[in-house]
Amino acid sequence: MTSRSRTADDARPPAPDPADARCWLMKSEPDEASIDDVLAMPGQTIAWFGVRNYQARNFMRDRMRIDDPVLFYHSSCAEPGIVGLARVASAPYPDPTQFDPQSPYYDATASRDAPRWMLVDVQATRKIATLSLAELRRHPELADMVVLRKGNRLSITPVTDAQWQFIHDRLALPVAKESR
After folding, report:
1. What are phi and psi of 54, to 5 degrees?
2. Distance in angstroms (rounded) separating the CA atoms of residues 180 and 79
């Protein structure tokens, strides 16, 4: 039997099991659907269309429930980060863009009888001051967030209740109103 010296990683508790999560971080490219766009939509709600990753699809199809909290995240932009709070507003249903040959999200292998891609409606509840990746990394309470893992590219990731509470209670500051 070999022994090894303990490292700082050994003292760290195991990462939370994402299967226990009922909170979500959902990424949107702001030129496609920004937090401001969604807040201006009827009911402040958008169908979360165009997800073409099986793991992200499975989160929506199998695990999301109406009223699950969502961290609305802007990606592929000058300052990526959490920009708003939202909630899951529907049960999953087939993403209609998979059936539209004119859509960039068209999937010729999908059929209405056997849809391949699902979506949920997401209702934005408020815009917050941007929480950048650098800001999130400054807090040890968030060290295990999936979005902070090296190489993570998923558009939807689980967030633990503790991570949600920390962000909601300590970091999610309302956007300052512009003075006229």
Report:
1. -65, -40
2. 25
- Partners of 72 in the beta sheet? 26, 84
* pTM as predicted: 0.85
- pLDDT of residue 93 exceeding 60, the answer is yes
Q: Tell me the pLDDT tens digit for each residue of 131-170.
A: 999 999 999 999 999 999 998 889 999 999 999 999 988 8
Range of the structural domain that residue 155 is part of: 21-171
Distance (Å, rounded) from C-alpha 69 to C-alpha 94? Answer: 21
Q: Specify the number of domains making up the chain.
A: 1
Inside any domain, residue 9: no
133 touches 95 (CB < 8 A) = no
Asked if the structure places residue 158 within a domain, the reply is yes
Q: Which tokens belong to 37?
A: 């766009």
- Could you tell me which residues come within 8 angstroms of residue 17 by beta carbon, excluding any fewer than 6 positions away? none
CATH number at residue 99: 3.10.590.10
